[in-house]
Amino acid sequence: MARSRRIFLPLSESPVLSSDLIGVLPGEERTITLAVDVAPDQEQRISLTAEVASGGRFVCVITGSCRGRLTIERQARLIGEGAAIVYSTALDVGGDARLSVSDDVVAFAAAAEMDIVARHVVRDVARAEVRSRLVLMPEAARSKAFARAEQLLLGEKPFAGAIPELDIRVDDVSCGHAASVSRPKSSDRFYLASRGLSDSEIDDMLAQAFLCPVSLV
Amino acid sequence: MDLRSVLDTPSAHRPRFSAIPGLSRELIVEISRQKNEPAWMLERRLAGFEHFLHADLPTWGPGLEELRLEDITYFVRPDATEVKSWDEVPEDIRSTFEALGIPEAERAALGGVGAQYDADVVYHNLRESLAAQGVIFLNMDAAVREREDLVREHFMTSCVPVHDHVFAMLHAAVWSGGTFIYVPKGVTVEIPLQAYFRMNTERGGQFEHTLIIADEGSSVHYIEGCSAPKFSKSSLHAGCVEIFVRRGATVQYSSIENWSKNTYNLNTKRALVDENGTIEWLNGNMGSGTTMLYPMSVLRGRGARSHYRGVALAGPGQRQDTGAKAALVAPETSATVESKSIAVGGGISTYRGLVKVTPGAQDANVSVTCDALMLDGSSVSSTIPILEVDAAQATVSHEASVGRIGDEEMFYLASRGLDAPDARRLVVGGFLEPIVGRLPLEYAVELEKLIDLEMAGAIG
User: Fold this and answer.
1) Which residues lie closer than 8 Å to A140 by C-beta, 6 or more apart?
2) Distance from CA of B61 to the nearest CA of A (A)
3) Number of other CB atoms surrounding residue B107 within 10 Å
4) What's the whole-number average pLDDT of chain A?
5) How many helices (DSSP H) and strands (DSSP E) are in chain B?
6) In this predicted structure, what is the pLDDT of residue B1?
7) Does A39 touch chain B (CB under 8 A)?
8) Which residues in chain B are closer than 8 Å to A93, comparing Cβ atoms?
9) Are B278 and B251 in contact, with CB atoms under 8 Å apart?
10) Measured between CB atoms, does A162 come within 8 Å of chain B?
11) What CA–CA distance (Å, rounded) separates B197 from B206?
12) Residues near B216 by Cβ (< 8 Å), separated by ≥ 6?
């Protein structure tokens, strides 16, 4: 059998196996916030699997800057009724950096809540690949699942890719995903330039503004 | 006879030639010999066959493990030749097309019609007014001989190359029948042209080839329909549609696929769009057991546009793996995709799409919307969109939603006196209306009937 010839594959074709199991007890709320700063010749990998019990809530927020190679692989299993997960990333990716974010969440019980947010600025010749997969099994009635991947391109030759997957096996749910790749409006740049900012200062200001809905929450 | 019976019942027609099941070099040479093809077409077939021998089936998508390619009969010729009058079509074939409403549609609303039965076109006709304008509407086999220059340049060369993927390779080897359309510069074909493909042979295959060339500034609407009887063994449809939209031209391609549930529908459709050209896809996938279909637009000229609208209904035992692809390689190009799918009675519906924006596509704009409606808890709905933006000054957006009919909507309709099945049907109709409403009225009605059939069968 032949694999796809593509390199950038969806999680359903190229799943990840995360390490570092984190258990969230019934009713427990746990938050992990990571600030990364990956230098140009550095390589960093963040890998975790969360197992969330009934009424539990797990939040993992990763913010910062990447100028090297950063791989983020997060899985989650929502095994109890009312379990919730929030995975978000807000990263400024530049130089010839390589960013890969993979978020794979499965709900096995009712009334689950999943919220995946990726908001990245991709500059210079950097490459950012964002994949997510939300799976609602037949037992996950009354669940809500949403994934968002928004990427802002700055500079000459950045690459941004997104594959937000949904795999829904129960009907009584509310699910969606959204993805966008865009550049700043020329009118925004013009306004800032008219206030005396240089091109690089404009880029930095726009990047900060784009990331703050995730990075500052 | 009701529509379901018409679609599911095979004709008693006996073919004049039926190959033994399976694929071989000898069969391909025989197909070419029987069609009296030029040597270059046989070479192209054999090239496809050679590629196919070394290719593997895809591992992604719905499983194809139960597809037995060695059991398929690849070439079945009806005991009929192409005619221009329905009266001359053998009665047992004509009655099938009459029951499907094809002759009636031609009289009422079409500029030209082609009707294919298994491997051969049995009826083909074009209004004289269109022929006088230089419009060419031929069956593909005839076009190979009569328009050799055009066909040789465009047939599985730059749009869907022979080596493109395993089912394109297979198609190149065994294709038969189909439609060739050429619209001269500046000509607008006001009335749609249609082809209808009927597969009648158990464990048969249909591999029609559609080649449309819309020259500069021209405009044409082409509609395809298809069906096959319900047998206990699987059939295979691996057709190919190649569309060349030249500068400033507009092509609207509409297709309503209603193969029987034991059919594997593994079709390839692609358009190359030049400067300021427009391709509009309108796809209705109601039938077949397993479908893998992803119409693709390559926007290679400045200002080229693509609009895709698709409806897929996955009922009991069906796996509809459909979507749209767009490759934007020139500046100021734009693409929109609107996909609606329904999963019911355990059906599996998957939207699989690709948007690829290359560095040359400055100021490109893409918008993708896919919505899925699940009518019960036993069905499955998936979306797998891939977005790739490489350097371009472009704006790409995608959104998708999956859900069911809300209790409030059902309550409201019940309060207005509708029972549950009627209420559900009304909501489904509203869900699909933005796409169905763009079809010519006759085809919108047919599509609505097919949806009614599928939903009645699934819900009871």
Assistant:
1) A78, A107, A108, A109, A110, A112, A169, A170, A173
2) 9
3) 10
4) 93
5) 12, 26
6) 61
7) no
8) none
9) yes
10) yes
11) 8
12) B185, B186, B246, B247, B248, B249
Judge whether B57 is closer than 8 Å to chain A, CB to CB: yes
At A115, give phi and psi (nearest 5°): -140, 115
Please identify among residues 157-176 of chain B the ones whose CB lies closer than 8 Å to any CB of chain A: 166
* Burial class of A43 by CB neighbour count within 10 A (0 to 12, 13 to 18, 19+): exposed
What the block records as the tokens of A189 is: 């740049």
Cα B225 from chain centroid? Answer: 8
CA separation for the pair B391, B368 (Å, rounded): 20
Cβ–Cβ under 8 Å, residues A81 and A108: no
In single-letter form, the type of residue at position A104 comes to D
Whether A32 contacts A62, CB under 8 Å: no
Contact yes or no for B396 and A181 at CB 8 A: yes
Q: Is the pLDDT of residue B92 over 70?
A: yes
Q: What is the pLDDT of residue B76?
A: 84
Q: What is A105-156 written as a DSSP string?
A: EEE-STT-EEEEEEEEEE-TT-EEEEEEEEEE-TT-TT-EEEEEEEEEE-SS
Residues of B in contact with A8 (CB under 8 A): 386, 388
**What is the pTM (predicted TM-score) of this model?**
0.91
- Cite the DSSP H helix spans in B18-64: 25-34, 39-53
Better-predicted residue by pLDDT, B438 or B330: B330
Percent above pLDDT 70 for chain B: 95
Q: Where are the beta strands (DSSP E) in B65-203?
A: 76-77, 112-117, 120-126, 136-139, 178-183, 193-198
The CA distance from B389 to B396, in Å, is 8
Among A21-25, A91-95, B184-188, B286-290, whose mean pLDDT is lowest?
B286-290
A40 touches A69 (CB < 8 A):
no
Split at pLDDT 50, 70, 90, the class of B460 is very low
Other CB atoms closer than 10 Å to residue B197's CB: what's the count? 25
Please give the Cα distance from B48 to B209 (Å, whole number): 14
Tell me phi and psi for residue B378, to 5 degrees.
-95, -5
Contact call for residues B300 and B272 (beta carbons, < 8 A)? yes
Picking from B377, B389, B397, the nearest residue to A160 by CB comes out as B389
CA B78 to chain centre: 22
A102: three-class secondary structure by DSSP: strand
**Which residues does chain B have within 8 Å of residue A178's beta carbon, measured at their own beta carbons?**
397-400
Give the range among A26-40, A101-115, B232-246 with minimum mean pLDDT: B232-246
- DSSP structure string for A13-52: TS------EEEE-TT-EEEEEEEEEE-TT-EEEEEEEEEE
Summarize pLDDT for B120-147 with one digit per residue, the tens: 777 777 778 888 899 999 999 999 999 9
In 3D, which of B387, B328, B384, B391 has the Cα closest to residue A129? B387
CA distance A216 to chain B (A): 24
Q: Each residue of A93-120: pLDDT tens digit?
A: 999 999 999 999 999 999 999 999 999 9
**Torsion angle (degrees, nearest 10) of CA B338, B344, B348, B350:** 10
